[in-house]
Design goal:
Helix content is 8%, strand content 52%. It contains 1 helix and 7 strands; from the N terminus they run βββββαββ. The longest helix is centred in the middle third of the chain and has 6 residues, at 50-55.
């Protein structure tokens, strides 16, 4: 899994599968696209206007939660 951010276009992309997969893009809203792989699985999620969306909650941090283990880790997002 890889989260990338294009500062010039203000777009974030969360890729869930290995590169090189053919995808079909589904526009969910004006600010969200989901790429679906040929096997029907989610390939990636694209956030347009990403800066605002990623900072909307959790004080601008990426929060990783392992609910089974009850553990949590925070990573600051530097999107300026």
């Amino acid at each position: 899994m890889k989260l990338t951010y294009d500062r010039d276009r203000n777009i974030a992309y969360l890729r869930l599968r290995p590169k090189g997969t053919d995808v079909e893009t589904i526009q969910v809203s004006d600010e969200l696209n989901v790429d679906i792989a040929a096997d029907g699985s989610v390939y990636g999620i694209e956030l347009l206007n990403a800066n605002e969306q990623l900072r909307a909650a959790d004080e601008g941090k990426l929060v990783l939660v392992d609910e089974t283990a009850g553990k949590e880790a925070e990573l600051p997002l530097s999107l300026d």
